[in-house]
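Subgroup meeting minutes
Present: P.N., E.W., G.H.
Scribe: E.W.

1. P.N. recapped why we're keeping a running log of single-chain structure predictions: easier to compare across weeks, and new members can see raw inputs and outputs side by side.
2. G.H. added today's entry (558 aa).
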Amino acid sequence: MPPVDAVSLCELHRAACATSGPRTALRYKSDGLWHRITWEDYRRRADNIAAGLISLGVKAGDRVALLSENRWEWLVADHALLSVGAVTVPIHSPSTPAQIQYQLEHSCACAVIVSTAAQWAKIVSVKLPVPMLARAISIEPIPDSPIMCLDAVEHLGRKSGIAGRAEIRVRESALSPDSLATIIYTSGTTGQPKGVMLSHGNLLTNSVAAADRDDYDSGSVWLNWLPLSHIFARLVDHYGTTRMGMTMVLAQSAMTVMDDIAEIEPSLFSSVPRLLEKAWAEISLVPPCDRRAKAKQLFGRRLVRISSGGAPLANHVALGLREAGAMVLEGYGLTESSPIISFNRSDSFKIGTVGKPVSGVEVRIADDGEVLTRGPHVMQGYWRDPEGTSATIQNGWLHTGDLGKLDEDGFLSITGRKKDLIVTSGGKNIAPAVLEAMLIRDPFIEQAIVYGDARPFVTAIVVPKFELKDEIERESGGRFSPDSEVTTDPDLMAWFQCRVDAAQKDVSSVERAKKIVVLNRSLSLDADELTVTQKVRRVAVFRRYQSHLDALYRSSNE
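Output recorded in log:
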């Protein structure tokens, strides 16, 4: 295992490569076949690309954007940029041209690495400074284009020989825990995204905390499918597996992940609740005595556990999967905290909580219920936003914006977002996350988004589980219409309202969603209703369906 006292991510990676050498570091599928990259090949290719980037004039401290889907070249390019002393600016691959333009310009990127011609087309569709485009690099060759191929950059690095390697050593030796490693833009669920500055020290200490577990070792196989451009997979899947020297297998895509899991049979993987909810929907359909066999069919025979983050996982899903032999351990964090603040452990967990703070991390609850955290995981600040930084970090404490509580054993529970807190026109404070968790316990409800700030009562947007569409229509006597985004069928509406009422039976009348909007489709990333980690963009969803929500209040006599 690489040393805990590494001063940079480069040193962490070099130590892992030196220790593991010919063992497999990465596996990926191409043209129907699985390929492998050893640890020594991993480092050699990163060094060649680093030397090539130096030859192209990339300086220490330069920001270089990385716009790509998950692939092994993403990982190698990230380590190459770190060795150059540059700052990686990962951009989510589904981003629109306008979003890409904002992040490139705001980060003052001097170069960009893209994966494909399709990603390059997004960039050329907007006006960008010429120097940036002059240093554009593509992972896949783009015919009839002046953009340089990553293979050519690697070849350039090989040609630099001893001089190139010497310059890499100089740049790596200049790095310290305080050196800026990356700028990651938040998902921007409200307003423009902010550029979170994370140092080598932030990520190193958090990778150590992520690896400070009792349920895996260097012989484990980790499957990655969450976007590497997001901090959760970047830290846990990327740097965490490096820290442990274990093999990481890249899923082909988010669409194929369950097939990849069944084929690879990983020991561990990270997830977000949506995937686990879908898996539980399948497992729960079989008799309880057959659920362990069904879980093994879905997740493989070697599964040790699944890490879940990004959003709350319904308690009944976590409990059901655990009883079926698929251990899910929830954690909590945010981009600004590198990201891990707390995590359950296999030998110390409570379902319904996000675990205890990890090593070196302090957590306390403010008087208004906000979760505050302090420690080496706290970001350096927001890029080019000193006011935002000072508002978020006060006296060393990061204000997370989340509401939570610590129990007598030190386990943290998240009860909602401070900004999402609903205050009805009658003055009642309601945490939507609590009510939403109740609603999605219903087997026919995929998602629920609670609404009602400054309104006389609470309402909700309900997204049905469309894989159960036939059963819903049979039981309700209604029909979904493909011609409208919102359900108007009275039988469907009445049937879902009854289910929503039943799900809320344990809360007071004033806290209940009294009326609902039922959608005819799922929320989607393409419609900008979800983030890359499947969090709901509440403001975007409310804006899209505002007229339907308004109609619920106009039709009420309350």
